Amino acid sequence: MLIGGHRPGQPLKRWQKVILKTMTQFCARMILLFGPAMLWYKVDRVKVDYKPYLGPDWTPSYNGASTIVGNHSSWCDIVLVTIMKFPSFTPKSGIQKWPFIGPICELVFDSYFINRAGTPEERQKIVDAIADRQSKSESGKAAPLMMFPEGCTTNNTELITFRRGAFQALHSVQPITYNYYSPYFNVAHDILDVLSHMILICSQPYTTCHVKELPVFKPNEYFFEHHKQGEEEKWMTYMRVVRHLMAEQLGFKETQSRLEDKFAYKEMLYPGKGSKNKTE
């Protein structure tokens, strides 16, 4: 039972969602304050000019995107965007079984759970389901999705290759970037286990983060006519350009490393744990 009067298996009423949203955002701020000692974080809406990409008639907007896409350094990313945007998430399906966290993700955030270890056919169904959800978000019938297109946490120095889920259906996205600073320990989760990472990050005197919100990017025919390279599919062009825009704001290199490379590296260091992260 998440709140008085709610029965398991039943959707939340509007007033219950409002109360739980307020409580969740308050708890998220307390987690940042008393966990990594994030005394402050800064959010800037940066004025990036998309006219070279979307044409001379483009005008900036910071609202109405179907999906928010961001680089993924640590669990702090999720807590920060909860305070800022309160989106829906696309967590791995195993989280649905976690006590308290699972019901919060499902009922409060209206998350879409993903089985990362599925067959190619199952993964295509996931992409199709995400596209359907993006349509609802773009029309205002649902909260925007929050997706981390790298597919995993990284070391906060480069952007690895993006996965197609957020871009396949060519719906609008709003890129955001997280740039952390801590005096002694890198906030990036990388290949650490969750408990070790939390102990280390909570042992620091303070942590700060500079979050940048870029305008909403909605691809159009002008974009594909002027920026499509060779035989690449439209979603590849879209993904490549958004990744480049994010890398510029972060000051990161764009590496050709993939999600699978992280799993392989972790398997080398911690036999049995690298492959475990591919499944639920």
TrEMBL record:
GO BP: phospholipid biosynthetic process
GO cellular component: membrane
Pathway given in the UniProt record: Lipid metabolism
Subcellular location: Membrane
Keyword set includes Cell membrane: no
One Pfam family per UniProt: Acyltransferase
Cross-referenced CDD domains: LPLAT_LPCAT1-like
UniProt-listed InterPro entries: LPCAT1-like, Plipid/glycerol_acylTrfase
Keywords of this entry: Acyltransferase, Lipid biosynthesis, Lipid metabolism, Membrane, Phospholipid biosynthesis, Phospholipid metabolism, Transferase, Transmembrane, Transmembrane helix
Limits of the Phospholipid/glycerol acyltransferase domain: 66-181
SMART domains, A to Z: PlsC
GO terms for MF: O-acyltransferase activity
Main location: membrane
Keyword Cytoplasm belongs to the record: no
Family named by the database record: Belongs to the 1-acyl-sn-glycerol-3-phosphate acyltransferase family.
Protein name: Phospholipid/glycerol acyltransferase domain-containing protein
Originating organism: Halteria grandinella
Species lineage: Eukaryota, Sar, Alveolata, Ciliophora, Intramacronucleata
